Amino acid sequence: MVERPIQVAIYGATKPYRSALLRCLDPYRYRVVEAVGPGAAPSSARRRVGIVYLDTDSDWAKADELCRGRRVTVVGITPDLSLERVVKALALGCDGVVHADTSEEIIANVVDSAVHGEVVLPSAAATILARAYLNQVSVSHELEPDELLILQRLAEGSHLAGIAGEVGWSERTLRRRMQSIFLTLGVSNRSQAVAKAGLLGLIEL
């Protein structure tokens, strides 16, 4: 019995890039359906794959839409493998993340592995995530509960006076403690502290 081809929808990127993806996926029994706008995903496949070129806000919105459905295997292709982009893609629920400039064969392998339930990442990205996790464990043990509360309130937009009243400190003590938080996180200001704490999963953004 011949297995039916798996239908694939490609979102974002340029037409030449989508055509290149079509060629590299062809040997893997995938049938590519080019789709750029919303609502153009294939509807009759046994299993479906959504490949999203993660660049613009609308690309990320499409990835989020596909991941929420969870009937589609989602692979993100990004022009920038920064830690922020990798974490964001995985947090959305992408089953694989790969750099746009890597070889067509590797992209095809990432897609094929994702279809079979394996989350595939470039080794460099996996190393970054492993280090970030270890850093998170280290930092989370170094920050006191009150300091985590301060970061959470800063992320929510609270004023220093309100935060100081909540933790029972003077504003002067609060500012001094914030300098300690900056040192622990390796940052130099509030916005950087909030961003890094959110990236490490210490607070909710």
Number of helices: 9
User: Percentage of helical residues?
Assistant: 40-55%
Strand segment count: 5
How would the global form be characterised? elongated
- What is the name of the CATH topology of the largest domain? Rossmann fold
Straight-line distance between termini: 50 Å
SSE series:
EHEEHEHEHHHHHH
Biggest sheet strand order reads: 2-1-3-4-5
CATH architecture of the largest domain: 3-Layer(aba) Sandwich
In percent, how much strand structure appears in the residues? 5-15%
Report the mean per-residue pLDDT as an integer.
80
Task: Tell me the CATH superfamily of the largest domain.
Answer: Response regulator
CATH class label of the largest domain? Alpha Beta
Structural class call reads alpha/beta
Largest sheet entry: 5 strands, parallel
**Rg over alpha carbons:** 21 Å
Quaternary class:
single chain
Number of domains: 2
Low-confidence stretches: 35-46
Describe this structure in words.
- The protein is of the alpha/beta class.
- The chain folds into two domains: about 5-120, Response regulator (Rossmann fold, 3-Layer(aba) Sandwich), CATH 3.40.50; about 145-200, Winged helix-like DNA-binding domain superfamily/Winged helix DNA-binding domain (Arc Repressor Mutant, subunit A, Orthogonal Bundle), CATH 1.10.10.
- The protein has helices spanning about 15-25, 55-70, 85-90, 105-115, 125-140, 145-155, 160-165, 170-185, 190-200; strands at about 5-10, 30-35, 50-55, 70-80, 95-100.
- Helix 2 links the parallel strand 3 (about 50-55) and strand 4.
- The N and C termini lie far apart (about 50 Å).
- The model is unreliable at about 35-45 (pLDDT under 50).
